[in-house]
Hints:
- The protein is of the alpha+beta class and 138 residues long.
- The chain has one domain (3-136): Roll (Thiol Ester Dehydrase, Chain A).
- The chain has helices spanning 25-40, 45-50, 122-125, 127-136; strands at 3-9, 59-64, 73-83, 87-96, 102-111.
- The chain has a 5-stranded antiparallel sheet.
- A hairpin with a 3-residue loop joins strand 3 (73-83) and strand 4.
- It is elongated.
- Keywords: Hydrolase, Plasmid.
- This is Putative thioesterase.
- It comes from Peptoclostridium acidaminophilum DSM 3953.
- Belongs to the 4-hydroxybenzoyl-CoA thioesterase family.
- InterPro entries: 4-hydroxybenzoyl-CoA_TE, HotDog_dom_sf, YbgC/YbaW.
Amino acid sequence: MFTDSIEMSVRYAETDVMGVAHHSVYYVWFEVGRTELIKKCGMSYSQMEKEGIMLPLTESSCSYIRGLVYEEEFTLITRLEELTGAKAVFSYVIIKKESGDIAARGRTVHPFVDSKFRVVNIRKKAPRIWELLSSIAK
């Protein structure tokens, strides 16, 4: 499976009163990783939506292993873990840049739906999108 990595750092607004990255921002970072990964296969989320395909998030999980603090640099690794005609599953690993320790691991599940939020088979409904995503799922 194709993976993509992005260098990031914790912004002040992303920290809580204890000075660590708030748990909710990990999902924002996951979205950044996911959209960048899809762009690298040759299509953006907005292009997919114009072609009538959307990827709502229906499941998410994150294991917080080591906290991140303000200005701490990290690498976000995103991978298209599973691809079927009905859904895409992405996995994420956040690695502390200085120590190399894993800070978090996550996973999100996204069915392919049309504009009425009905699950579709992307192989039939949007073969071009299927081919692009398949190219990074190998």
